[in-house]
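Q: what does this look like with fe (ii) ion bound?
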Amino acid sequence: MIKLIPIGRLRPGMYIHDLNCGWLQHDFVRNRFLVEGEDDVRKVRAIGVREVYVDTARGLDPDALPLAPAAAPAAAPASGEAPAVRTGSKAANAFERARALHREATQIVRDMLVDIRLGKQIELEKVEPLVTRIVDSIFTQQDALLPLARLKQHDNYTFQHSVSVCALMTAFARTLELPREIIREIAIGALLHDVGKARVPDEILNKPARLTDAEFEKMKNHVVQSKIILQATPGISDIALDVAAQHHERHDGTGYPNRLKGEAISLYGQMGAIVDVYDAITSNRVYHKGMPPTEALRKILEWSAMHFKPTLVQAFIRSVGIYPTGSLVRLESRRLAVVQAQHADKPMQPTVKVIFHTAGHYLQPEDVDLRRSQDQIVGYEDFAVWNIDTARWLPS
Ligand SMILES: [Fe+2]
């Protein structure tokens, strides 16, 4: 994997993939090489770059090393055009807060599922403040929380999926201009929609392969269990119950558990179905690779002929954007860029961070508002195909 690290973290044994300074003079013959000793580290620092790309497949992984004591300050850049990747501190705080909230929410859902396994009830008063913060975060800056939905670890999948569905449902409900009190109930239902998985055996829940038919039947039962658990939760609303109990129903009546059809599925159940599928197919699992978000939206639109209500799918696409924040796109200029922010009035022209040229080299990162640029998106791209670290380039 290619990682961008501050120059202070460079150590002998790491493999430099790109010196990140094509516009500067340096006396290394090549741009890619193994850092053999402290002497090489000193020489790289002397170039004046602040960050370099290292290839963890060919050398030491900086994240696998113990944190170094205070790194030596980088030498001053040789020109005024130093790589400037970070955004302003106010925006950076919003992204930091979103990351902290995502972590905390994942932990709370994990604890809740453990409690349910122990036979305890859900205490709504513990869930509500968390949901309020998620809803507030989406209303304040949805581009901070939504891209985190795609970063899931295998053993955390169930909990992170719940948090993602909560964030996505809130954004969806906001696009539909539903009242804030209803959005809050939808978000509670979304966060709790899979609590029934606490009653599915771990070996089925975390099976690193496709389920057999018998296992799938047990897995499907999580919806019935979610409903039972939530019905026993004091203070739960009908809206939250609908999200949980109907998130696997399908518009054409092919869903489960009740094979409800069309408008027999509540608006909240229909929304839950779209969001649940979107989050599941864009996530990497052991047995399948997540789809790029734009491709997932295209698929869901295609399936909406049978499974979902097309007008609702279109509203969902408006809420996350045709090119969702955090996705990788190719520009007409043959540059690759990561979407950083949506503009509701111009869904085809988000703000992007240009990072890579399809000729095969990284570029000095640059934020480009495509509404004010001659350049335009020509298609989506897959991070894995280009061996680019997804997490590194999320808005920050
Ligand atoms: Fe589910």
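Residues 194, 222, 247-248, 276 surround fe (ii) ion (CB under 6 Å). The CA atoms of residues 209 and 314 lie 32 Å apart.
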